Amino acid sequence: MNRLSLIHIIYFIGIAVAFSLFALVPCIAQAEAATLSGVVLDTERKRIAGFTINLSPVFQMSKTDENGVFTFTDVPAGPVQIMIPPQQFGENEKPSFNLEPDDELVSIKIGGITLYQGMRPPFGGIRFAVKPGGDFKNIEVTVRPRMRIRARVVFKDGKLLTNASISQVIQGGGGSSSGGATTDSEGYFVHYLDNDGDAAFYTVSVRYKGLSAKSEQFELEAGGRHDDLVLTLDGVAPPAAPPKQSESSKESLPNLLRKLTGGSTPPDKPTSTQTKRPAPTIQGQPRVEVEQGQVKPRVTNAARAQQRRPPWEQDAWAVNPANGHAYRKIRCRSLEDAKDRAAAEGAYLVAINDEAEQKWLLGLFGNHLYWIGLSDAEKDGEWVWQNGEPLTYTNWGAKHSFPRSTLSPEDKDSAVMTFINGQWHAVGPGDLLWRTTKMAILEKGDVSNNSASGEE
Asked: Is residue 243 assigned to a domain?
């Protein structure tokens, strides 16, 4: 199996793993297929020609034309995800061992709503859902080059270290990372960085079979690239291994003569001094020492955890294929904080209008405590949704599912959705659920038939 085939296999496995996050999302039966079309833009809103994006789980690839336009056809209804596939070729279209994409998604804009990537590359993507027969036009897909360090490894005598496995340590930008890498046919390897903050100083160290090299400290701008780094190992290239001896060449002249003449020359007998030499063992790579960086740490553990969260726990919106509405799960300090954040984004606390919508929300966001947009503050006993919709469906839980409240029913003018089958409970200031509910679900109106436009 060649390396490019391996790249494809790993890529599709990665897509399958990423898309397994959709397993809890109820999918509607496949009906009329949908069409998705739009443009790929850079961060300066210029169209990009010849850029490839992937749509999963249908595994469609679309390459933009000279105007930066892409099209996906015959898209089944339900959740989909747009991703950037890994590189298939490196510099000058030569085969590359790099299994990661060289660019990353910034956002996808569909009409008045913008969706953001929730997972870092290589398997991060932006997901949404389509209606049966929906037609998503003029989608804007914004991409940018990934921040990276590209280094070339050479021996002390100037020879290139090609097609070899090395250990590497990247120090700087508020932390360090270590692991393995493989140099290509020209001695290069690439390391991608997740630091999108301020400029920082970095050093790069590598080890190969007891030899090591370390770079001088260099500065890298946020979102920038350092592609001309050369790392010189503190030793010369090992001698080339002797060519493998063929089976026929192992036989002595007497044996060959016997075969050729049909004679009875006895075969060679091994002498007492002939012993089988054990195969050489490869010494394990020594432990890599990490030096303390000189840059003030900026990437916190919380930030790294945020990067690992699925899209619906970050800034991404998910579109319900049944109604075209967009939903997002947020963390908040209080009910008022949740309302303020919803208003700032042109949204409102979720209004749940039927059982199907309730189940879709639970399948997507899971069973937790959430603020929802239900209130009877205007008139006691008349519950209405924050967006003005009437109450057409309810999922109230038993009154004593939680510790009894000291508040009277008149004082409970807000509602939460609980972790017990998504049941709703009326709450007021001072209740246990009032104090402990720190998440909310936001909703925006129908976005599925809106359009967006890109600029040249």
From this structure: no
